[in-house]
Amino acid sequence: MKTDELLINMGPVHPSTHGVLRFKLTMDGEIIRNCEIVMGYLHRGTEKLGEMKTYMQFVPYTDRLDYISAFPNNYAYVKAVEELAGIEVPLRAEYIRVLTLELNRIVNHLVMIGSLLLDLGASTMIMYGFRERENALALFDMLCGARMTFNYIKPGGVREDMPEGFIPKLNEFINDMDMRIDDYEQLVSGNEIFMGRMKNIGVMSAQDAINYGMTGPSLRGHGVNYDIRKMEPYSVYPDLDFKACMRRECDSFARYMVRIDEMRESLHILKQVVDQMPQGKAETHAKYGIAPMTGAPTAVSTYFPRIFTPPPGEVYSRIEAPKGELGFYIVSDGTIKPYRIKIRSPSFCNLTAIPKMVEGLMIPDLIAAFGTIDVVLGDVDR
Amino acid sequence: MTWISKNWTMVGIIKGLILTMKHILRIGNRPTVTVQYPYQKMKVSPRYRGLHAVDENACIGCGICEVNCPNATIQIVKYKAKWYPQVNIGMCLFCGLCVDVCPMNAMKMTGNYELADYTRESLVYGPDRLLFNKEVKQ
Amino acid sequence: MNPAEEIKQLFPDSVVSVGQQIKKPLAIIKKEGLLEVAQKVKEMGFDNLSVITGIDYGDRFEVVYNFFSYVKKQNLVLKVVLGHENPEVASLASIWKVADWLERETYDLVGIKFRGHPNLKRILLPEGWMGHPLRKDYDMNVDQFVTIGEDGEDIVSTDGSNLLRR
Amino acid sequence: MWTGDIMFANAYELIVFILNFIGIYEPINNIFKTLGIEYVLRIIIVFIEIAVLLVFALLTIMFLTWMERKVVAMVQARYGPMVTGPRGLLQPVMDGIKLIGKEDIIPAKADRWVFTLAPFLVFIPALLIFIPLPFGESLIISDLKVGLLYLIAISALSPIAILLAGWSSNNKYSLMGAMRAVAQDISYTIPLALSAIAIVLFTGSLSTVDIVTAQNGTWFGFIPKWFIFLQPLGFILFLIASIAEMGRIPFDFQESEQELVAGFFTEYSGIKFAMFFLAEYAHLFSVSAIVVTLFLGGWSFPILPYLPAVLVPLVSFVVFLVKTYAVIFFAMWLRHTVPRVRIDQLLNLGWKIMIPLALLNLLVTGFLLTVGVFK
């Protein structure tokens, strides 16, 4: 009997591609023989835009790369600029930054687990995830006046200090989350159908995973004990006690469990940050072009020369974003605008591994493996 | 095959069923959290970055906000014999840079987030809709 | 020892100069020697190719490779300087699989060709796009319209006529 | 007091009895008799039955869509529909209006006739299943002697319609969805039938009424004589198979939204889509009703013998509905708790586990009956 291969275009508009991504699948019945990824449907030319904005003006655009977790984007860019210009940051500002980063990590993993389970057909987890995410977004709203696109972390500090009553609210959230994560585990982790769908699916050796450029929690599910927060400590992470969560199974379930562990670890970090939060000033220094919001208005003339220009040079700076290694490569020519900005986005590089990972699996497994890689299309296409 | 023969008791599924039943019966701090939007509104924080507002007395029309806007949203226009910013909400990122750079602290952002409208022209908020008069407290 | 110095000792002919890019050792490589240097770099334990960047300086192109070693916890930056006319450099896709897409992206946006790449096509922009946007001489005043054709191919035009369906 | 006997063989006789009771049956019958067309009256009464059944079925389907939304909302800490009508009860009406108002799209390269035929072919069997269902004491359209066989045969019709829909859409997702649906239906009808046969061993009859009456009464005065207690394994197998038969998560392969967009009805819109939707919920109700009839005692309940005979049809109807909705609630509750299994896991489960277990169950039941344990 003669059989033919079936070409299926999964996407650009498909319920489980998390946006506009297209898989060109060559199928043998239900088995994937070849997977080619077509992207770029959300390409907005952020890197080109960066060449046309000043250093300050580009910060809000970084929010829109990975819109699920915008604080790490802010921070990665700002860290690169600070390294380039050698700016000192007040300690309190660094603590607030770490607070936002870890809170955003929890938010990101909630969305990731929720959408993963939604792709597998369990519609409930995403609602629970969004319920807790809503509380976190309210905290972000309190902190910086926006719920998803923050523009909060600026070169030299943060936009504003924490408002009154933020820490009690945060403590409430942390205490609540402890119980909620147990709930998620009860609902999801032990579920036999879930394990049947995730275990031994999307297996890739650690060697391959590194070679394919996987980073972050996805890589740590492959038994690579690596975390940029530990290996190249930045901000105040050296002062905090935490561990890089790691699993050795190399399959989708391990990648999922790393996320659950990381949420617990982030809560642990948040507790320490709240305890160790120093007093002092957190706003960006006025000389970097941004005046603090509060304070009496002063004469106009003193504001004009405050356009921030870093010295000429190149820097590649990276952080451990919730999705993996997020890096900004900035070339400065000493003018007010960057000469070139290159964004090394974690989603883009993690996605490289998918075609190899899903060869010989079925469409449902592709969805499971793709969900655990955790990509955001705004980050892939930039 | 292995997945079912190892876990034939289906304890995990039963645990999950118990958890969802707890939610159905609202046991132990698992309340309904929906905010029914048009009837109920969420409270936004005092720092919320919504529609702009410009202090009529403080604004000097210097144009720093115009220069600093990343998306060329703001234009300085003449109104009542003075110069004031005009904001095109359709292009606005709500990043708050204009508020940050205002030397006179005249620019504010309010908690108004219901900005949908029928035409593109009505998204351009001229000074007549942005200005507010701050009472002089003395 | 500084890995950039190490490379200079091993390949004195290929390395133009050795320096420092903020906190990270940097080696500027001749484009002919890139492949063998890269092979050595992989053997030295730099298993993570973080990023490939192409920069248009008007008179020349620079291709920058950032490496990180999970074993040694070290950074290394390699840089290749190319002429402005027809920039071409050896592909590293055979050594690091992630280079496949990163090089395609660099080709797409900066227009640097990678010799020996298995599948050098545009990745973010549609096939048939005119120009490479991240070059400094890219004309941004030309509008380009993209539609999807009958068989799923992207069709690019500058006058928008393909937006109209028959 | 109700003696435990069936008063009327089917709803037709009940209607005749009620008309007699009011005193209008004889006069009307005489009119038709003088005209020589008695059969017209019979036809009219049958049409009344069908109309009542249709209205009941459509109301049930509407209520089920509302209930589904409310249950999922309760599980997910939400309110569900709240705006149209009290607690959103009129939401299904609004859905219907919306779906009727939508454009009826037939894809250019679809097989037009088959494409149009398929939704009706799905919907009609879903209604036909209602015929031998015993809704209550005397409340049955037709007490077929082969009722159980009829039920299984009719529910095996839907794969054909699904395959037609998937094939005629000329869409790869539709085709794959249809293929999956057929593979699933075939592999789950077998354990379904096998575990139903174990019941037939007890009753010795395929009639649904006989199956229900066999479950009347109690053991030791408090345990109802439901077959779930005699056939626990059979019940579990039948429940799993019937959830698969309904096509709901964890076994919703005909749709599997996140994999195949919407499965076999990807290309359907408007009223044709509504047909599939209604058929799905009709199926949900009827399959739950079959579960109740076979294993949970149907309309029988230990309090029935203590009621006056007049009330028994009504009370037994309520009992039947309560039991059916309990099963439906379980299906909904399960749907929103667990993820979907993979298609090969599903087929493995069906062929390698459920069919051997069902056969074993049949064997053990037959052996025990022969030895005489249950007598």
Topology of helices and strands:
The complex is a heterotetramer of chains A (382), B (138), C (166) and D (375).
Chain A: E1 6-10, E2 22-28, E3 31-38, H1 46-52, H2 59-63, H3 70-85, H4 91-120, H5 124-144, E4 153-154, E5 157-158, H6 166-189, H7 192-198, H8 206-211, H9 216-220, H10 228-231, H11 252-276, E6 313-321, E7 324-332, E8 338-344, H12 346-351, H13 354-357, H14 363-373, H15 377-381
Antiparallel strand pairs in A: 1-2, 2-3, 4-5, 6-7, 7-8
Helix pairs in contact in A: 3-4, 4-5, 4-11, 4-14, 5-6, 6-11, 11-14
Chain B: H1 2-6, H2 11-25, E1 52-55, H3 64-68, E2 74-79, E3 82-88, H4 97-101, E4 107-109, E5 124-125, H5 127-130, E6 131-132
Chain C: H1 3-10, E1 15-21, E2 24-29, H2 34-43, E3 48-56, E4 60-68, E5 75-83, E6 88-90, H3 99-109, E7 113-115, E8 145-148, E9 154-157
Parallel strand pairs in C: 2-5, 6-7
Antiparallel strand pairs in C: 1-2, 3-4, 4-5, 8-9
Explain what you see.
- The complex is a heterotetramer of chains A (382), B (138), C (166) and D (375).
- With 382 residues, chain A is α+β, with helices and mostly antiparallel strands.
- Chain A has one domain (43-381): Orthogonal Bundle (Cytochrome-c3 Hydrogenase, chain B), CATH 1.10.645.10.
- Helices cover 46% and strands 13% of the residues of chain A.
- Chain A contains 15 helices and eight strands.
- Chain A has a three-stranded antiparallel sheet.
- In chain A, strand 2 and strand 3 form a beta hairpin.
- Chain B has 138 residues and is α+β, with helices and mostly antiparallel strands.
- In chain B, the strands form two sheets. Chain B has a three-stranded mixed sheet.
- Chain C has two domains: 3-119, NADH:ubiquinone oxidoreductase Nqo5 subunit (Beta Polymerase, domain 2), CATH 3.30.460.80; 125-166, no CATH class.
- A five-stranded mixed sheet of chain C has the order 1-2-5-4-3.
- Chain C is elongated.
- The model of chain C has no long low-confidence stretch (mean pLDDT 82).
- Chains in contact: A-B, A-C, A-D, B-D.
- At the A-B interface, helix 2, helix 5, helix 6 and helix 7 of A face helix 2 and helix 4 of B.
